[in-house]
Predict the structure.
Amino acid sequence: MLQEEHRKLLEEAFKMSTINRTKSDELIAKAAEIERQIDELKD
């Protein structure tokens, strides 16, 4: 499910934010894309 994948990406991004900021930013970008897909499905 997209919501679950979105939540997991945000959790991982938070963990990575103190270790590898670049990787964290990549995960946040992926989560944002999934959020966009979720919003499209709602419409």
The radius of gyration is 11 Å.
